[in-house]
Amino acid sequence: MSAAWKASGITYNRYLAIAARVVRRSLKDDKRLAAERRGEMDLRFARWDNGKQGENKNLAEANEKAFAEHAKADGGA
Amino acid sequence: MNSLRIARAAAKATGAVRTLQRRGYADVAPDKIRLSLALPHQAIYKSQDVVQVNLPAESGEMGILAQHVPSIEQLKPGLVEIIEEAGGSKQFFLSGGFATVQPGSVLSINAVEGFPLEDFSPENVRNQITEAQKIAGGSGSAHDIAEAQVELEVLESLQAALK
């Protein structure tokens, strides 16, 4: 039997990140504030074309968008 | 010359006896299990000898004692119980990860987040459950609903552990 999250296309890495986020949010407020800082990611990337740097993009947002499009394509097929 | 050879042989023999009796640095006491419980940012247990560890494995709840068969278990978000040498026990809620039983009574547990139960706020858990239920039962994208269901699974396990 496969887990429901796996069937809906969530990777194990993403599953762990969601579970960890929920656990951090469930802490008492003083510990929660210190712990939630660990869940933040602010990586940015840019695509270079012909020696010129493109637009700076947030990696987390780009991933989220790509995932949504991927899921839509899967649903349509 | 001959006496020297006898002396050397005798020294060799006592050396052999000594290695047989000596307990090496890496050996674990026969009735203990050496536990490492590590998070990315902190080691809760660092090669500490304990008596028993109860794990919420994906394949079911299991208790690990000394001389357990080597195995790798995926952990569900849930409560890990550690029975220490002094007889007391400690409980930690882990967000999910892996436990590796290595040969020779060595156990390594890796998780992303892990806290003792008293660090959790039942109120925050309850609020998150109502929120996740709203999303899971709502008309959002399939992706959002799937994520909310993962959250619900973790929260319900946490709420059961807090009771």
From TrEMBL, chain A:
SUPFAM superfamilies: Epsilon subunit of mitochondrial F1F0-ATP synthase. Signal peptide: none annotated. GO terms for molecular function: proton-transporting ATP synthase activity, rotational mechanism. InterPro entries: ATP_synth_F1_esu_mt, ATP_synth_F1_esu_sf_mt. GO terms for cellular component: mitochondrial inner membrane; proton-transporting ATP synthase complex. GO terms for biological process: proton motive force-driven mitochondrial ATP synthesis. Pfam families: ATP-synt_Eps. It comes from the Eukaryota. Belongs to the eukaryotic ATPase epsilon family. This is ATP synthase subunit epsilon, mitochondrial. It comes from Cryoendolithus antarcticus.
TrEMBL record, chain B:
GO terms for cellular component: mitochondrial inner membrane; proton-transporting ATP synthase complex. InterPro entries: ATP_synth_F1_dsu/esu, ATP_synth_F1_dsu/esu_N, ATPD_C_fung, ATPsynth_dsu/esu_N. Coiled coil: none annotated. It is found in: Mitochondrion inner membrane. The keyword Ligase does not apply. This is ATP synthase subunit delta, mitochondrial. The lineage of its organism: Eukaryota, Fungi, Dikarya, Ascomycota, Pezizomycotina. Belongs to the ATPase epsilon chain family. The keyword Transport applies.
